[in-house]
Amino acid sequence: MNEDQVRQNLKDAFQSAEGKPPSFDEVWAAAEVQHGLSRRRFRTIGGIAAAVAVIGITLGLWPEQQAELTDEFLIADSLLNSTSWSAPSDSLMPEHQFDIYQEIHFLNESTNSQEGSLL
Amino acid sequence: MREHDALDNNPNISQQALEALHGQLFGWALSRCGYDDATAEDLMQQAYVEVLSGKARFENRSTLKTFMFGIVQNLARSRFRRKNTRLRVIDAYAAEQDDVAVPHEEYANLKIVWDAVESLPQRQRDITELVFVRDMTIEEASTVMGVTVGTGRVHYDRAKKSLAERLASLHPKESMQ
User: Fold this and answer.
1) Domains of chain B (ranges, CATH numbers)
2) From A1, A34, A39, residue closest to B176, measured CB to CB
3) Contact, B176 vs B164, CB < 8 A?
4) Does ipTM surpass 0.90 in this model?
5) By CB neighbour count within 10 A (0-12 exposed, 13-18 middle, 19+ buried), where does A34 fall?
6) Three-class secondary structure of residue A111 per DSSP
7) Which end is more exposed in chain B, N or C (fewer Cβ atoms within 10 Å of the end residue's Cβ)?
8) Does A104 touch chain B (CB under 8 A)?
């Protein structure tokens, strides 16, 4: 079997399964409608969003009280973020040293003396 | 040059050129969706919406046929990614036989051809259809399938060999050249 025969056999088989295609004009018209609808929907949603935003701004829907609270919070927050505080004595504290009275809770004591001192 | 019926969002595509491809594109869409007419028509419509909206933009880097076949291929892939799309051609063909009288021998031959096509792996089946049935070059078919030309050539050679062996019974006295 040569390549042309394979080609012809396949073409015959595919054509028998495919039948007649739908009309181009019908499919094209449906595509145009779908394209138009999606474009219109996109424009409608955009228009509604813009209108809501304009109305909201115009009518001052943002509660004044809430706006004041927000302003106060922002001021306090910015102050806290822009400053730092530490006790004056912090800089006077020496580096950590071993404190025998604080860090050893009991001391072994002796009553034996040597050269006048307790061991 | 812009043709008189060129699309607004795709100036390199004319409606007339799409109409000329319509039949072949429908055949390709059918084979992408298991030969379901309604789904194929829906795929075609979606492909036309893609070019109408300019989402898929044709820049003359390939032929329009390759471009449109590629759109249908991609749409089908994304739509049927999770589905096992099997060819149901023989069933469809058998159902048609109730209405159309086809000689028994002819039907038997078609069944042999379809069995041979169905036995091929998906990519070999695709390149077989694109090259043998849709008259594309291996390069064009590879572009539609999204594989390199080298890979496309390997699939084509294997498919051709396999088909020649399986279809030998139709023309027993000849061998594939």
Assistant:
1) 1-86 (1.10.1740)
2) A1
3) yes
4) no
5) middle
6) coil
7) N
8) no
